[in-house]
User: Fold these one by one.
Assistant:
Number 1:
Amino acid sequence: MTRDIDISDDATVPVGRFAPSPSGRMHLGNVFTALLSWLSVRSRGGRWILRIEDLDPQRSRLEHARLIEDDLQWLGLDRDEGGIDGTGPSAPYLQSLRHSLYEKALRDLEATGLTYPCRCTRADIMATQAPHASDGRVVYAGTCRPEGFPAVRPKADSRPAATRIMVPDRDICFTDIVAGPQAVNLAELCGDFVLRRADGAWAYQLAVVVDDALMGVTEVVRGCDLLDSAARQIYLFDLLGFKAPAFAHVPLLCNQAGQRLSKRDASLDMGSLRRRYSPEELVGYLGHLAGLLPKPEPVTPAALAEIFDWSKVRRSQEIRI
Ligand code: GLU
């Protein structure tokens, strides 16, 4: 399975999206990702969607989603579709309102014969780690895989089951716009992965694929911490019969100690930044960090879109600020 994607050759109207989880106010790193996603499509006359990834009811708050919308508007990152009350062609744009679409995709994946119920607890999974997981990653050993795979421990059928999907033991290849060529063997990276958890919650990997596919997204721009999800998602796009989007996994903003900015860094959240800077100052600063501007001078997103080119964007995994 090989994909070489050159987005500049694609004749269709580019469709990008920003898909924040509303677990807090956006910080500078979130804005950096949103800006690059917006610039990429706007520089080519494309469309931009805001999708709210609120599948985790414990962490998601509607008031955070409202602040995200307000902050994007303040920055000048306008959208064509999406948001809390979005009524566009792919509505609704809150994942918590899209369960029936995930159900349908799960049924389609079940029909491939590649899914199976899994009743392993976290402790079971840790106790049966596959041999590849030397760097701390958790690789599912395939304990509950149907026949043809050694059952490590028989399972009682009474507990609720998660649904996993079998992965092939071969490379999935694609070219990330920022990170370059990738070859990922899912059997080594993660093993058979979860589509729906035993408590009924949808896995990010399934929901994001269903949404990007049904929303017609042609390019996914997000932080490089999600680079290792792309191969799982390409695998699901293929099984569901959708064309996978192009991927651009952009650097993460980190502090001087190399720690990734998080929603806990209150001084860099949008509430604090909006009190100290204008939208143009922030956009100019981020454009400079990205490698688009020689110095951090104030600029509007629209003016930055005119000079945007992926070839100028810094190709590191992190940018220290
Ligand atoms: N909701 C994810 C986050 O906020 C992003 C998922 C994605 O862009 O695919 O980290």
Number 2:
Amino acid sequence: MKKIDIIVPCYNEEDSLEIFQRHIEKIFQHVSELEYSLIYVNDGSKDKTLELIKTLCNENKNINYISFARNFGKEAGILAGLSYSTGDYVVVMDADLQHPPELIPRMLKEVEAGYDCCMARRANRKGEGLVRRKLSRLFYRFMNLITSIEVVQGSTDFCLMTRQMVNAVLLLHERERFTKGIFNWVGFNKTYIEYENVERIAGESKWSFKGLFNYAISGITAFSVTPLRMASVIGIAVMFIAFTYALFVFVSALSSDSAKTGYASIIIIMLFLGGMIIFLLGVIGEYLSKIYIEVKGRPAYIIKETSLEIND
Ligand code: UDP
Ligand code: MG
């Protein structure tokens, strides 16, 4: 019998876990052709999440867990889950029921029909603020404009993939992982199914505005070097303007005898160019910091305990 692994990164999810677990069990009562197993990845939760997972694990042989030594972030949780999964199919999903488990049988059908991966995408962003919605649209547009991968509007990291694709995803060794981008980068045949955005059942989102901003920057720097190239393009443009203006000043000095003075214009140009140079230094710094982090080669996560057999 084929096996499907469901990977669930959890950070402070004590209020949603049991409800989530019940939903999954209900779904798999109707899926008899597959053996299922859950891998909960406890990402350094500060509440009772780990105790709860252990209780669930003792009650149900289909459940396993990996628990990190501290909070390493959702991307690290997904990586750990994928690394220790053994199923023929793997699902990655959130614990807060924002990724409706009802979609799993439909995703399974798509993959059994020949796709390598079925991804879920939100048809709308109901329940999210206007600013967040607009910014996220802008981010996807920008991302698709300057990178060679295509991230579909409203795409999530809720997906079902084949073992072959999981193995491909695990070939990417970067520590700063922008999972959505990685799933697209590896290629394979993908199909999308849409669902209505739902609010989380309990607890609150771990994303702050700053967190999302950093996530956006790491997505861009992980998949594009266009911002670095920007420096050269801007430099050439500024030199061109300077040259044209010098010509203009030269000609007007020959044709009239009044010397041009201009305190304001000099200050404005100085501030503008100064700002641009500092900004571009910042862009370089952004990439440099990514290189620094990758070069150190630290592990993406540290496992403190697990119910799985790990032989490293
Ligand atoms: N999560 C995690 N580590 C973190 C933050 C979040 O494992 O540092 C998990 C969280 O428990 C949930 C999923 O990632 O299962 C999505 O988190 P959240 O609902 O806060 O994000 P949102 O749905 O708002 O994008
Ligand atoms: Mg959520």
